[in-house]
Amino acid sequence: xxxxxxxxxxxxxxxGGMIWASGPxxxxxxxxxxxxxxxxxxxxxxESFTAALVETRRLTDRPFGVNVPLLYSHAxxxxxxxxxxxxxxxxxSAGNPAKxxxxxxAAGATVVHVVSTPRLAKKCQDCGCDAVVAEGFEAxxxxxxxxxxxxxxxxxxxxxxxxxxxxxxxxGDGRGLAAALSLGASGVQLGSRFAACRESGLHExxxxxxxxxxxxxxxLILRKLVPxxxxxxxxxxxxxxxxxxxxxxxxxxTLLGRQRSRLGMLEGELEEGELEIGxxxxxxxxxxxxxxxVTALVRDYERVRGSLPVLHA
Length: 313
Fold this sequence. Notes:
Layout: H1 2-7, E1 13-15, H2 24-32, E2 37-40, H3 46-59, E3 64-69, H4 75-84, E4 89-93, H5 101-106, E5 110-115, H6 118-126, E6 131-135, E7 141-142, H7 150-160, E8 165-168, H8 174-182, E9 187-190, H9 192-195, H10 204-212, E10 218-221, E11 228-231, H11 234-244, H12 249-256, H13 260-266, H14 290-307
Parallel strand pairs: 1-9, 2-3, 3-4, 4-5, 5-6, 6-8, 8-9
Antiparallel strand pairs: 7-11, 10-11
């Protein structure tokens, strides 16, 4: 497959670069299983990021990449550190890739950017990105403002560009992988499924809350700021109530406070923390290893592919 050749991997499966979750243990485990693991730099300082690169290289000799949210205050420094350390696979998000892609490409890097609309995908192709991740509204964490779901987004992005497209948002098993490839995607990026595994850096209490979640237990909040999908809790309810009465962006920022995601995702505060997770959490009921997830995705994909009905008589 073209995507596998581009990324140097066996299976067209990428683990999302999630804050607090995507550390060396998870990235290395996914890469060792034949997918592509990503370090999530958005919750790392430059110092901890450097240490994470060293540890990931200790744990795997397979290709791995780095996810860099471009609005992150240390994004420029992280990009420099990664390039200096020999990283050549970058997944960028939350910002304008035209500002960073030419420099990364000049250094011989492969660049993939996360998009929420076909128009943005076309811009990524025009500025030199090698592939895009088309992430639907179902996804956990920060979302696009356009609220396009994966099922309608992916084929429109595939039609808009000639570079490989990875589908993301609401994909958690082999059925989702089969659906994404049937829509024209070249592969998938999974966040929530890998967030709920043994190597994930999330607090154990949060992991248990994910696998206990019902299908309707997430909400998209903070639309006036940067939309983010979270597991419902006391914090989310306060935000929803404030938004319902028309709270300003400034008031919402005050309610959000500082380090809210760290409080929930890393420290395990289930009521007052920001618990970023996708709608697919309603399907997740176990905490396997990352390697077991990759194996199950491939096995179940093959089963689904062989069981599709014949439409003609």
